[in-house]
Amino acid sequence: MASHAIPTHASAASPSSEQTGLWSWLTTVDHKRIGILYLYTALFYLLVGGLEALLIRTQLAKPNLHVVSAETYNQLFTMHGTTMVFLVVMPLSAAFFNYLIPLQIGARDVAFPRLNAFSYWVYALGGLFITLPIFFGLAPNGGWFGYAPLSGPTYGGGFNMDFWVLGLQILGISSLAAAFNFITTIINLRAPGMTLMRMPMFTWMSFVVQFLIVLAFPVITAALFFLQFDRFFGTQFYEVSAGGDPLLWQHLFWVFGHPEVYILILPAFGLVSEVLPTHSRKPLFGYNVMAYSGIMIGFLGFGVWAHHMFAVGMGPVADSIFSVATMLIGIPTGVKIFNWIATMYGGSLRFPTSMKFAIGLIAMFTIGGISGVMHSSPPSDLQQTDTYFVVAHFHYVLYGGAIMGIFAGIYHYFPKITGRFMSEKIGSWHFWLNFIGLNLTFFPMHFSGMLGMPRRIYTYDAGQGWDLFNLMSTTGTYMLMIAGLVFAYNFFSSRQRGAAAGNDPWGAPTLEWSIPSPPPEYNFAQIPEVASRYPMWDLKAPDRTEGIAHSHADAATIADAHAVPVHEETERRSAKELGIPMPFPTIKPFMVALGILILFSGLIVLHAGHFALAMATMLGGAAFMVGSLYAWLTSPLE
Amino acid sequence: MATAAAAGAHEAHEHAHYTTTGLNHRKIAMWAFIGSECMLFGSLISTYLVYKGRSVVGPFPHEAWTSPTGQVFKPILNIPVTSASTFVLLMSSLFMVLALAAVENKGKPGYEGLLGSSKFWLAATAAAGATFLGFQAYEFTSFVHEGLTIKTNLFGSSFFTLTGFHGTHVAVGVLWLMTMLFIDMKRGLQPKDAINIDIMALYWHFVDVVWIIIFALVYLIK
Amino acid sequence: MSTDRVHADHVHEHPTWKQYKWVALWLFIITVAEVWAYYIPALVNSKAFVPSILLMMVVKFTIVVMFYMHLKYDHHLFRKLFTGPLTIAGITLVAFLFLFGKL
Lengths: 638, 222, 103
Fold this sequence. Notes:
The complex is a heterotrimer of chains A (638), B (222) and C (103). Chain A is mainly alpha-helical. Helices cover 63% and strands 1% of the residues of chain A. Chain A has helices at 22-27, 31-60, 70-105, 113-131, 160-188, 201-233, 246-280, 287-300, 316-344, 353-375, 378-384, 388-418, 424-450, 467-497, 535-540, 575-578, 588-607, 611-634; strands spanning 528-529, 564-565. Chain A has a two-stranded parallel sheet. In chain A, helix 3 (70-105) packs across helix 7, helix 6 (201-233) runs parallel beside helix 8 (287-300) and helix 10 (353-375) packs antiparallel against helix 12. With 222 residues, chain B is mainly α. Chain B has one domain: Up-down Bundle (Four Helix Bundle (Hemerythrin (Met), subunit A)), CATH 1.20.120. Chain B has six helices and two strands. The two termini of chain B are 32 Å apart. Residues 1-15 of chain B have low confidence and may be disordered. Chain C has two domains: 3-72; 75-103. Chain C has helices at residues 3-6, 17-38, 41-44, 49-68, 76-99. In chain C, helix 2 (17-38) runs antiparallel to helix 4 (49-68). Residues 1-11 of chain C have low confidence and may be disordered. The chains are: A mainly alpha (638), B mainly alpha (222), C mainly alpha (103). The interface between A and B is large, with 63 and 50 residues.
């Protein structure tokens, strides 16, 4: 995008980011507003998934409780996993992808603004599709991993798993569309002078994650299509009596599922890699190694899937290969941990809430990482598989890792998004309640798991040595709920009354801090020409980056006709005044998403036995989708 | 997924905006999409191969089968017919590159006659694609008549799913081709529109190479 | 940005009819060879059959990708975007064949 006005477009109507009202949110194509939509929606689902966890833990608080029925319990743990993975952590990451990537690379929007809106609406509608059935007792009940044949027509004949299979297909469309968008954005919309090795680390990790999505999601799409065809059209993919192999589902699912783990954690790694240098007032230690280890994690992530399946007996060769690959992946991950510690070493440290959460991530993720290395050894894994030890492990990496990192990101970027600070005092309460609560919940699970308590059981008898540990876990969960309420209060009250934050409240080094908070609709009035990895420190604290390659402005920069050197922008003028063409708001992406939802709903009607109505729904949905798509593609962007 | 790609493929800042690499947004997105499709078809083909020879009842692709009731089924794959449809799809790729060359070089010397007629080559590509789909419809119906449906056995399930997915991709391609042909007839495609044909061609050729793999692995290797 | 960078993707000249017709001819010949091989029982029963079909498949695949999809001429970025996922898909496929006892 040229930074100077292109006179012919100056007359183009510019939508204002000051617009409010439901319609403006339905039609927005501004990456920042879409990011905010992702943030609010995903925080809502965090509450939903948290309440599900609360019910699960209440049921397990003491032996032989009957707080919920066994069937409800199955629905709760299935929806807890599905919600947290697909409706909370991925969309929270997507909120940051949307909000931050264009700002960090010095762009005015993503490459395909309308496709971006489409991704959000598919997610929002798909989330409702998979969540609402719980109010009718029809929520998915076969586990978030949907192991066939339990999820197939023979053992899962009700509507429950229909919603899971179709809901995940819908959500996959959202993730894939967003991934193509961000790959193109990062490749093609970096500001002049921003080489790959000058990109902020969050953008780097996001870049890796987009490739993981592009490569992992088609595999579960295929696996889900087989399951969908088994359920709706009578195919035999997972039908054991016809020669079908349940292991096919498991392999396909985990070829997706393990990269998915890195899809969940790498954005959080990226966020803390922004927070730690800022509050250590020191460049990220080993930037290149951090970037390469992210790529390494992504690549190796495709070669470790069967460590989820050691218990099925794949034979010594396969077990050895997947075991060694899993141990190998610990290396780049460990490198990251040490680099974060080295970033803080000798730094001039500050401890705002975001920093507390970032350091919390380092500590908690390390615990989860170490128990992960324990699982990589098949003999050890055979003792731990399907016990609460595994539950402890992945909650340390996902709650202690991904969620802590995302909270660090929320506290760090809240001033940029809203123009106001969150309360540090309440934030500190939130952090400590959260930190103690999470350890109280998940640490005892190591013990209950080692004592043999299996995952996913509805209740248990007394006298097996599990009672105390379960009570501790339940107490911790209530504490986490209180921490969540403290956070919600802080979030909404700071949104209204927080202290005003300027462009750069933390003294951070990257481009997003050079523009006003909240940023104007066009982000950068003039596209900056980047000459270093930490452009804002070159302006304000040049001593921090001396002697580190790429970190300080070098003499030989690209002379660009339009761009201007990195500078702080303080003026706030409308895009129209500046002559910057902005994309038109449009409802069409929402309509295409709605068409997809109707199309998939038709299969539920088919299962209900109304053939004609099902056909009408599917054909109507498809026609609506294709029609809206053509309307979208034939209307001008800006 | 095809929808999402098509949406991405058509949308972008059309004007001479700054880009880092100088490459077209949509072309980058299309290659990323094709990378993604490699994994989709990789999964479908893996499944077909993993289930090869595991069906407990016939009909089978390459072997005859006698049912418990004494009914005899021939090997079901029809190599001559499929060879013909393979040839048609390969030729469609030639027509596609000629359509692209015609749009890119419109008005240049050497492109006055048929070689410069983008309408002809777009129509020829779409017709070849439709012919391929016709062959596939013939193949599917004759299989059903011979007693193989998607429900019959693992071979039926994995075969119809794999080739059906490929056929759906061809159908989307034909729709896309006809849309571009419609635009060409309405206002005439110019060299500046070549990028749109280029991106569509990438999709079309990818669908062709997937068929090259399916033809060898499913039809020829016993 | 200067115009030459904005239009960089048009700098690489695509091949013309002269090359395309040879590409099409080779694809046709290899396809004929594939089908021909299928009808030689001695070859089909020999160990050489599967490798030779796979070889011809790979050659056809490569020709289409390099010439028709212009990867030979286009920006190196596109080559990376394609060969990376293709490699992972290939490795995964071989791993599946191994895990299900097909190798």
